[in-house]
């Protein structure tokens, strides 16, 4: 349920891509230094967006350095880090841990159990730093799991619970910007949850796994377009709140993500679905 809040590289200036990539590298570096290789494995584009958003809003002192990494061992890359990189790394680890824990409880996925077990010592440390956020995230994920087990069909309710989780993560501190940050996180969370359901619908039907869009898929021949309309509403609300914030630093990168980057996966998924449908018609299967 991660990786949807990314850039559209084709629509981005080279200098902006370099800046974006440097924050992504900074997050990767921080996850490794603070939480080891296992922490590094939780790296996501979604938390890179959070770093850029908080950096653009609060404009903290940011460290820039050249680093090596396993992915690019032959050349050094620029990495940017600040206090929001540390925060995003912590939130990323917390969210990954509780998601794996719920996957084990719900579906007995051994891989999720082992990964959650490996991350648990780090979570114990973070509980002293972010007790309220961890309590809220854990509670909401349990609620989400309960409704999934009950085969809840209310799409807005299900997406809203994950929206509440992301709202808690985006609200870095209590100040005049908290309300807008919570709303941005809330609508992005709903978008992520619904986009994940849209992408996995065929697989979930085949395996018998829960998917809140199941009824909509069977009852509507315009499933992809209806999904797009719902997703558009989520991003429109998110973007409206973003434009209220006094952000100049990295604003072009953030707009690239909100106005076109978030649609890259949707476009890829729907194009693949159309191609499969076309192939099926041609073969008569």
Radius of gyration: 19 Å
Q: In sequence order, what are the helices and strands, one letter per element?
A: HHEEHHHHHHHHH
In the predicted model, the low-confidence regions spanning at least 5 consecutive residues are: none
Strand order of the largest sheet: 1-2
Find the structural class using helix and strand composition: mainly alpha
| Distance N to C terminus | 32 Å
**Helix count, per DSSP?**
11
- Percent helix, as a range, is over 70%
The number of distinct β-strands equals: 2
- Let me know the largest β-sheet: 2 strands, antiparallel
pLDDT averaged over residues: 91
What does the overall shape look like? globular
DSSP strand content:
under 5%
SSE layout and pairing:
Layout: H1 14-40, H2 45-58, E1 63-67, E2 77-81, H3 83-107, H4 110-129, H5 131-149, H6 155-170, H7 178-207, H8 214-219, H9 223-244, H10 251-259, H11 264-283
Antiparallel strand pairs: 1-2
Helix pairs in contact: 1-2, 1-3, 2-3, 2-10, 3-4, 3-5, 5-6, 6-7, 7-9
Short description:
With 285 residues, the chain is mainly alpha-helical.
Task: Describe this entry's structure for a reader.
With 285 residues, the chain is mainly α. It has a domain at 130-250. The protein has helices spanning 14-40, 45-58, 83-107, 110-129, 131-149, 155-170, 178-207, 214-219, 223-244, 251-259, 264-283; strands at residues 63-67, 77-81. The longest helix has 30 residues, at 178-207. The chain is globular and about 55 Å long.
Features:
single chain
